[in-house]
Amino acid sequence: MTATLPSDPPPALTEAPILAYAVRGGFLESAHRASLVALDRDGNVLLERGAINSPIFPRSSNKPLQALAMLRHGLDLPDHLLALACSSHSGEAFHLDGVREILALGQLTDADLQNTPDYPYNQDEHDRAIAAGEPKSAIFQNCSGKHAAMLLTCRVNGWDLATYRDVDHPLQQAIAATLADVAQEPVAATAIDGCGAPVMAVSLRGLARAFASVAAADPDTACGRIASAMRAHPEYVGGTRRDVTALMQGTDGAIAKDGAEAVYAVGLADGRGIALKVADGGQRARPVILAAAMQSLGIDSDAYAALTDAPILGHGEVVGGIIATGF
């Protein structure tokens, strides 16, 4: 398939202000444009940069909302496995064990997974797999927790397993309806994500609304169950070396999910929500911009050192870094 340029690029890309610079040896080498919004518990805008009503693909930041749809349709998992269903995991041993636990609940195996084969995200596990001569596999790939949960949800409902990734499948239709519900806006576009499942677009404002509603929900509700699982097991949502895990571990009441092409979404227990998208898709600026936004909102966190650790190297030595601006 040959890509063609749409006639109307989204304002979240074309109207995004510079929110971070790459500084090398005191010289401004590159700039990252981004759009960002923070909302209070009533949905009022607390912080706005760029086009916050422009649709974006949240990519993996949608995963807690996809898991919410599955809970609403009969999925029942212990908290650590529910957190894994919300994850872009690092492929560490406990992640892979958890994926197999989910599959076993539906009498399924690795062979039933349809996500794109890959090596583990964690560098040590990546290198170990290659050194051992292991091929890329679906279970290694960071979306296997979500896909295992999708298969189990289909098993619970008697839906076809072979076509669970199809946009018209009952599972994907349920996910679209849930996303529209919690974002409080219709899905603006649908495409295929890197893992092979559909990815659905909403605005940054809608994404922030969704995360705020999940984070502030009563623990006895489906939304509250997602939030409780993510808070209790942030290492399952990311991994032992991931900034998204550090963010949840270091920020009281927070849930968070990173996404490909430099998306980040955060919900706080007090009902605030934050969502951002770096226009060029460059991941290095994503946590730095988020940390600046959180600090400007007065959010206490022990994770700021991890979020802003973005060194620029010269011959293996630190010669600069990524610096947020505009806050």
Can you characterise this structure?
The chain has a domain at 11-74 and 166-324: 3-Layer(aba) Sandwich (Beta-lactamase). Helix 3 packs across helix 4 (93-105) and helix 3 packs across helix 6 (144-157). The longest helix has 14 residues, at 144-157. With 327 residues, it is an alpha+beta fold. The protein has helices at residues 11-14, 63-72, 79-85, 93-105, 123-131, 144-157, 170-183, 204-215, 222-232, 234-237, 243-250, 286-296, 304-307; strands spanning 18-24, 27-39, 45-49, 55-56, 189-192, 198-203, 255-259, 263-267, 273-278, 311-314, 317-324. The strands form two sheets. Strands 1, 2, 3, 7, 8, 9, 10 and 11 form an eight-stranded antiparallel β-sheet that branches. A three-stranded antiparallel β-sheet has the order 4-6-5. The N and C termini lie far apart (41 Å).
**Contiguous helical run count:** 13
Radius of gyration: 19 Å
Helical content (DSSP H or I, runs of 4+): 25-40%
Q: Name the poorly predicted regions.
A: none
Query: What characteristic shape results from the CA principal axes?
Result: globular
InterPro entries: Asparaginase_II
Protein name: Putative asparaginase
Pfam family, one: Asparaginase_II
What's the arrangement of secondary structure elements?
Layout: H1 11-14, E1 18-24, E2 27-39, E3 45-49, E4 55-56, H2 63-72, H3 79-85, H4 93-105, H5 123-131, H6 144-157, H7 170-183, E5 189-192, E6 198-203, H8 204-215, H9 222-232, H10 234-237, H11 243-250, E7 255-259, E8 263-267, E9 273-278, H12 286-296, H13 304-307, E10 311-314, E11 317-324
Antiparallel strand pairs: 1-2, 1-11, 2-3, 2-9, 4-6, 5-6, 7-8, 8-9, 10-11
